Amino acid sequence: MSPLDRSLVIGPLALSVGQLLLMLSIVIALIIGGWLGRRRKVNVGDSIFNAMLLGVIGARLVFIVQYGESYDTFWSWFDIRDRGFEPLAGLVVALVYLAWRLWRQPHERGPLGTAVISGALTWSLTAGALTLMVSQGASIPSTTLTTLKHDEVTLPTMLSEADRPMVVNLWASWCPPCRREMPVFEQAQQERDDVTFVFVNQGESLSTVSAFLQQESLTLDNVYLDRNNALGHDVGAMAMPTTLYYNADGTLIDTHFGELSRATLDRSLARFNL
């Protein structure tokens, strides 16, 4: 897993490192913009906030245009818990707004321009340094897992036997987002025989997992136990759900941290180029 995709838990809040760095960059931009704005008696905080908001809206709209057919209802378009965004589109929208703002409000150019550059430099220096730590995609870990029939397996062995891409979902029955996304995985597993779906329960007993599957009427293949959370530790996922996408060679090509929808699952599956 890329350093930016590693998750951190802060009390009840779970965030990826990438999200934390983005928040840090925005805070830096607001601090610099506020400080310079006070000196020049202009307020650039609203411009920065509006750029961020428009960027988020733009990123979501473009994602919906691309994967709208994967959503069951119109209202599900607004459920951003699946983190279905197109970051590049959002960046373009934010930059267009900032360019328009700088053109229309010349007195904001100094403070706002400096704030934006400061935020961009913060992101580049922190995220860029972390990305350089991993020169290539991480390999699938050889963590020993246990089947529901008490046999031991490893993901690399399964991958070599199946000779096809693998989607690995880390979950727990007490995790509400995990429970909500399970039907999505069940449907995908039934429809896609060109991808191996694996469900690795983190830290729960066989009886708990079996009772959950029966209670929810879920029919899932490849459900494994990881009682010591070893796989989560090996891949740097401290919160759930986390979904990892490995190609047939065992190289990590995508990560989804948090709840997903059929749309965000389809987006990641498309990267297998099957």
UniProtKB/TrEMBL annotation:
One Pfam family matching this protein: Redoxin
Residue stretches making up the Thioredoxin domain: 134-274
Key words, A-Z: Cytochrome c-type biogenesis, Disulfide bond, Membrane, Redox-active center, Transmembrane, Transmembrane helix
CDD domains the UniProt entry points to: TlpA_like_family
Subcellular compartments: Cell envelope
Regions crossing the membrane: 12-36, 48-67, 87-103, 115-134
Keyword Membrane appears in the UniProt entry: yes
The protein's name: TlpA family protein disulfide reductase
Organism: Halomonas citrativorans
Organism taxonomic ancestry: Bacteria, Pseudomonadati, Pseudomonadota, Gammaproteobacteria, Oceanospirillales
